[in-house]
Amino acid sequence: MSEDKETGGLNRTLLGKLIVVAVLMFGFAYALNPFYRQICEALGINVLTQKDGTVSVDANTQIDKTRSVTIEFDGNAQGPWRFRPVTHSMSVHPGELATVMYEVVNTQNREVSAQAIPSYAPQSAMPHFKKVECFCFKQQTMKPNEARQMPVVFFIDPALPKDVKTITLSYTFFEVGGLDKPKTAAR
Question: What keywords appear on the UniProt entry (predicted)?
Answer without folding.
Answer: Copper, Membrane, Signal-anchor, Transmembrane, Transmembrane helix
